[in-house]
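Lecture 7, part B: from sequences to assemblies.

Below are the input chains for today's worked example.
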Amino acid sequence: MQRLEKKFGDFTAVNKIDFVVKQGEIFGFLGPNGAGKSTTIRMLCGIIPPTSGSGQVGGYDIIKEQHIIKEHIGYMSQKFSLYDDLTVEENVDFYSGIYKIPRNLKEERKKQVIRMAELEDLKGNLTRTLPGGWKQRLALGCALIHQPKLLFLDEPTSGVDPITRANFWAIIKNLAASGVTIFVTTHYMDEAENCDRMVLIYKGTIIAMGTPTEMKTQCMKNDVLEITIADAQNWLERISKVEGVKEAALFGANIHSVVFDSEKAIPLLRVFLEKEGAKGFTINKIMPSLEDVFVSSIEDYDETQFKKN
Amino acid sequence: MTRLNLKRIRAVAFKEFIQIRRDPRSLALALVIPVVLLVIFGYGLSLDIDNVRMVVWNQDNSQFSQDFVLNFRYSKYFEIVGNIDNYRDIQRLLDNGRIMMALVIPKDFSHYLRSGKTAPLQLLVDGSDSNTATIAMSYVNAVVANYNVHLLSKTFQDQGLVPPKSLSQRPRIWFNMGLESRWFIIPGVISMIMMIIAALLTSITVAREWERGTMEQLISTPVKAPELIIGKFLPYFAIGFFDLIVALVMARFIFFVPFRGSYLLLIFLSMFFLTGALSQGILISTVAKTQILASQLAILTTFIPTMLLSGFIYPIFNMPKFVQAVTYLVPARYYIVILRESFLKGGTLATMWDEAVFLFIFASIMLTMSVKKFKKKVA
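Predicted structure of the full complex, as structure tokens:
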């Protein structure tokens, strides 16, 4: 993608972004609500045209060769968007007609897809009657009926229970293992760990990019400390006031604290806690979670933007 | 443009068929509404006026005046519901709508006639429905004129003279001898049904896809706008023709409207009309992406013009010039002529050529516009 931009009137939803997705990887497109995730995915799938910029999907130009791209991609939108007055089987049949699946392959593909979605016993049921997570699986199945090389998933797990989510990610990983490139948006940061590579988009701009490990080690300016201490709750406020500590939050029975520089902060905290009479505590620098990385990247971005103005 | 794919069209049409079958509301709209409309308009909307209810106050009560009143009594256009002897009662009956008019024959009616003078008559008419009142009055005029001729010839005969020659009209009304307004209305109702069903149903079905987000999914697939449109057309085309046949059968065997033209020709020309109306539905749905808005727009742009501006009820030549110009844009205008010609006049392609050409133009423009507009929306 090169300088891809989308404006709605005066509002710039996606501000000239550039990125590359490698074949066969799970590429995460992360960001808070309204960051421009869906807009980007819809431009890539040829649902809306970009205002400016260019891009290629599967080697085809997203502006001139949309119709070829559409043959090779599967798309699953945020909102469940199959026909809920059709049965599971009828939905699959419809999309296999739309994707021109040859007659001799049709039945087999249908079986595969329904098996993958674990809907074998419900294939005659109206889609309307299925629970949310099952509908999502059916939608995924329909997006895969033509065995696309590229799969676009727009918040596939929003509003789905944790077990179904885990299940869903297992399917996605399987697909990636079989060579399908997966482009997935989400605002669940814990899901980002499943991605091979990711970008963080915020206010239409990419503010961080890399593998999960790169993100944790390179994109974060601050360090994260884990403090184990008895009665952590009572210490929380006092710790957050220690010099060099940016913030502190409870994490289970422990405290996670973001500090500007661990080299300086650890001794200061030690001295402070000993002086206050705390016993048997430990302070360790830990690998930040992706959530920590994202929150701090977004804060940094806002700060620099604020300074600019 | 790349070639259209039959498989995709079939998939869309089949899906649409299933959806219609499962949706009791659109099924009812498609199959019951035509029957209901035909019954309502066929029985309810009669432009014929007969049995005008009236009272008579015969102050004269002579042989002459009683003779004269008999002319009303034996006419199918009037129904004398009573004799009255004061104005108070007349006023009361007119006020509460029990009668349409009152005939007052003055005391010296026969005296005037015998002495060779013109005898005045008073007619009191309820003018609140001006249309009916005008027609009723023209009936009265006819009765009076008849009676005058009768008087004149009688006078001549009494004097042993030959009555003078006078004009006598012997009307022979072609195509609708009994001037049954039903014969004239039913073809109009058929065109209204076709227009509404086609435009309303298609606009709703496309709007529903926008509303439910299924359109977004479709846009991400390789399906092309014309494939989608044609696929959606097919089931509604079938419904349209089913409705046409139901309406034809009802017209023939329930309302006894004669059919003198060619069924094949009518069906052929109906295809143009239906294509245009269906395309109009698609066009509406590109503007209105919710079902409510789409149905309102569909009714506004089909039902009302068809009702008022097509010559269905109100003759076009009576309209102001500006409005007349607008009626050329109302496709039902042409279709109604085709229907009426087919039913009543035994029209052929030659007699309906202009209408056929206009319908063809309407269908082509609507179809191209809807495909173009739709393409823009989805790509």
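Note for the exam: The longest strand of chain A covers residues 2-8. Keep this in mind when comparing with the next example.
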